[in-house]
Structure formats: structure tokens, C-alpha cells
Amino acid sequence: MRTIRLAVPLSILLALAACGGEETPPADDTASADTAATVAEEAAEPELPPLPSGDFRIVSISFGTAVDEEGQVRQPREQFGPNDRIHAAVVTVGSSDGLTLSGRWLAPDGREIARAGQTLNPSTPTVASFSLHQDAPWPPGEYRFQIAVNERVLETRAFEVR
Fold first, then answer.
1. How far apart (Å, rounded) are the C-alpha atoms in residues 65 and 80?
2. Rounded distance between C-alpha atoms, residue 137 and residue 125, angstroms
3. Cα separation of 92 and 12, whole Å?
4. Where in the chain does DSSP place strands (E)?
5. Secondary structure (3-state) at 158
6. Hey, which residues does 128 pair with through a beta bridge?
7. Beta strand 152-161 with 79-80: parallel, antiparallel or unpaired?
8. Are 160 and 143 in contact (CB under 8 A)?
9. Which of 7, 62, 77, 99 has a C-alpha 20 to 30 A away from that of 23?
10. What CA–CA distance (Å, rounded) separates 99 from 118?
11. Running along the chain, 162 residues long, what does each successive block of 10 average in pLDDT?
């Protein structure tokens, strides 16, 4: 009988060894949470749109109440009245096989109030003009203008309505 009693526990040990027999350590909730957070962050970060080919770049952005026949702001300013038409002139240099240059106007609370885009195939310095106007007076505050190339925001500039 003694042999049988030893055989049963020995067979259980052999079966455990054959199945891997090692105990899996308990899951570390912190490590699991960190891994899940990292995966969620990576999934939440959208891939940025591609930049244009070539050596295209933005040189300046200026604001004013009028633009000339070339689209340039000749009397730059950063403060406007509540009834002003506001223009942004974006000067670029360089060349590209094609891109979309877009301007986005943001209210003091951050909401988008206007957006416009232009398709360009620049090979020389270029001026792109964007305008903002409404019939009702603009509420006072600090507004922002974002300029993007292929939907990738490259610059943000502030201006004020008093």
C-alpha cells in the first residue's frame, strides 16, 4: 500500500511537470494598466498628414484690413475693430509638386469660425490671402489664425478684436 500512496503523488508531480508545471506569477495590475494606457495613447494619436515634397516653407503671416492686387498686406496690424474685415497674407517660398494651403480662423473660445483652402503648385515665392468678415460685430477677444499645409498645422498666430 505504501507504494501506491507514493505512486499517486509522484504521478501528479510528473503530470504537472509535463504541462509546464511552473506557476505563472500573478498579474501586476500596474503593468497591465500601463500597457493598456500606452496602447490606447498610440491608438488615439492620429497619423500626421504628409508634408509637401520639395523645399516649400512659410516665410511670414501678416494681418491687415486690406490687401493689394498681389494679395499682400501693406499696413500690417494685430488689433482690429469689431466691424473690420480681417485679412491674412501668407508668404511662402520654395517649390513643391503640389499641396493644399489652408487657413483656419478660431474664436477666443477656440471654436472654428471659418476655414478656406487653396491648392498650390509653387515654383516661385507665393502669396496666399485669406479673409474673415461677418455682418454682425466681432465680440472682443484674442482670436487665432492657423495655417496648415496638407491639413498639418504649421503655424498659429494671434490677433485681437477690441
1. 8
2. 35
3. 78
4. 57-64, 79-80, 86-93, 99-106, 112-120, 126-132, 141-149, 152-161
5. strand
6. 90
7. parallel
8. yes
9. 7
10. 8
11. 36 40 48 52 67 88 97 97 97 93 98 96 94 96 97 97 97
pLDDT of residue 162: 96
User: CA 46 to CA 54: how far, in whole Å?
Assistant: 24
Residue whose C-alpha is closest to residue 92's, from 154, 157, 32, 1 = 154
Q: Which of 158, 162, 33 is nearest to 88 (CA)?
A: 158
What is the radius of gyration, based on Cα positions, of the chain? 31
Residue 23 exposure: Cα atoms within 13 Å on the Cβ side: 3
Q: Is 31 left (phi over 0), alpha (psi -120 to 50) or beta?
A: alpha
Place of cell 493644399: 100
Nearest partner of 50 among 88, 97, 93, judged by Cα: 97
Q: Are 101 and 149 in contact (CB under 8 A)?
A: yes
